[in-house]
Amino acid sequence: MPPVADPIGAYLHSSLTKHGTSGPEATILQTKLQRALLSRVEFEPAERQHSHLLQQLQTKYIVLGERDGPSSGRPQPPICLSKKSELRLGWGNASYPTGAGMVNLGNTCYLNSSLQALFHAPALVRWLLEDSRHAARCGSSDQCTVCSMARTLRSTHQRQGGVVKPILIYSKLKLICKHLIHGRQEDAHEFVRHLLDSMQRCHLLAMRATKLDTLSKETTPLNHLFGGYLKTQVTCLRCHHASMTFQHFQDLLVDVRQVSTVDDALHLYFKKERLDGADYKCERCRMKVPATKKFFIDETPLVLCIQLKRFSLGGGKITKHVSFPNKLNVARFMTRPPAQGQVVYSLVSLINHMGPSQNCGHYTAMAKAANGQVYLFDDASVRMTSMGNMLNTNAYVLIYEMTSATRQLLLGPAPGEDCLLLFVSASILYHLSMALCCLIWRLRSAPSVV
Ligand SMILES: [Zn+2]
Ligand SMILES: [Zn+2]
Question: pTM for the whole thing?
Fold first, then answer.
């Protein structure tokens, strides 16, 4: 009796014994079986379907729940529209004018202040004025917010000491965001967000890149300037499995209710938070478990925008002074801080709000100009003030720009600097080779000593 655990063997045995083991059919069957059973079977390791699927999907989505180890990195864009390392920071050696005041066109102090704050972020100014690639490919400059920003910026430079009407931007309020209403006071921070989003859309249109995947769209110069990535790490307290997700961010909205400094507000933002068992289901334990959650800056933006959450949903406003530094080091909030421990930003401009709520009151801006002076921009009025006054204001939106030293540390030399480095290296090599040639020639021509 054949073993029950081998049903195929049992069937073959019964069929062979039923029809007899002799005869031509049995011989053919035996030969074929022998050939099949004695031939060497080559095995190929099966492809991991999970990783194959992830590779396909990561071009479309940000991968959730990636494991620890080398594969836990943030997905990279399939197409890169521009290089972050090509953008220039700081005012450089060029002398940019301070810029003109702006006429209030009817409750437009939010718009004027936002423009003044952005027009004093050197990296944005230099991209708008020095990079001609957008203008060369933009076919509808009248309908484009990037071109409108560049033209408005040029006009404020040409009318330094005077006043301009930012009509090119004001006339495009509905293009910037359909919810913005002419004549109504809007929130300056929301306006900055909508304006940058609109510039991003217009730039993608100019580059014929509107159909790209999300990650590739995030490689525009505007996203390199203002965009970074946050990593959220949730760790299961039962099995210690860490789940990670990545989000693109263009500003940090910090809670200032319990703190009196921006530094403390950032500590609170990036502090490890405890999730109780009802909130989180661990993907490894497959059950609801207590866990911890923590944010990290996975990639830093070149221009860091921080909004102090002064307004409550109920319409109230937190009016207290929240101090903020001129130089801000964010290294301790990063996933992989550099060994030097310094990722430093310098304050370039800010937006102030005076009044009871975000849609009521008055907005002004303060900024460091290219001449090193600090100015207060209050609609048509532009007055010189001091760094001390700037740091003492009850700021609502802070705009910081990465210092050149940090940029060099994270991205390498800026354009121009690498050319200089190349020139110096080539020059040293040239002189060395010339000296070597001279030495060889002298050795050959020197009389031999017997
Ligand atoms: Zn354009
Ligand atoms: Zn778990």
Answer: 0.76
